[in-house]
Each structure stands twice: as C-alpha cells, then as structure tokens.
Amino acid sequence: MRVRILIVDDERDYLALMQLNLDIEGYEVGTACTESEALASLESRRPDLILMDVDMGEESGLDITSRLKKNPETADIPLIMVTGEDSEEDRVRGFEAGADDYVTKPFELTFLLERVRAVLGGERMQAPAQS
C-alpha cells in the first residue's frame, strides 16, 4: 500500500510541482487549495503526511495546522510546513502550531523529498515499475 500525502497550498504552480514529483517517487498524492477542500479530503481518506502552506490568502496554514493538531482524529498525522515565510520567527510559529518540519520556498526538490522521507521515518518509497 502506497503512502498517502495531502498537499494543501493555494499556489497552483507549487501544488502541481510537488504533486508530480511525489507521484514519481511512488507516493499517492491528494491536493487541496483551501481549508474546506483539505477537510473534505481528510474525511474521505486519511493521509499519512500533510504538506501545508502558511499563507493561503484569507486562511492561515498556521491556524489550520493548530486545529488539526488539537483534533484527536488528526493530531497524530505528521505535518510539514512548506512556505515562503522564512524568518526564524515564522519557523518558530510553525513548530508552535504543531508542524513536524518546516521547508521554505523556493526549495530544491531533492531537499523536500528527503524531508518527507525523514518525517515518515526514513522509509524511501519506490516508484512503481514501468511497463
């Protein structure tokens, strides 16, 4: 069974980039551009990991993260903040909200993939065999 990752980001370019590369690595990827889409996705299929943007227009990824971490049904889902907010204060707020890791945009894809593997326990996912 493939590891499922939910990406929550209102920047469609980053969303598509992360989705494509995680899919190539063998992960099952779901996406959401808003909090309501993220919650609907969480209800339909629980992810093994969430990648969360901080600045999502009217919504704050920090607030969404805090709510997810306070909810007993979602508190144990690992979460990586993936955001353009890169000050030390921003990172501290991310960890205080409950993030397990923090990656700043722009990022190298290899770095993001290694952070995903580390948060998931170091397990490397193999891409499906090509036929």
UniProtKB/TrEMBL annotation:
The keyword tRNA processing does not apply. It comes from the Bacteria. Residues 4-120 form the Response regulatory domain. The keyword Lyase does not apply. SMART domains: REC. GO terms for biological process: phosphorelay signal transduction system. The modification 4-aspartylphosphate is found at D53. Transmembrane segments: none annotated. Pfam families: Response_reg (PF00072). Keywords: Phosphoprotein. This is Transcriptional regulatory protein YycF. The gene is yycF_1.
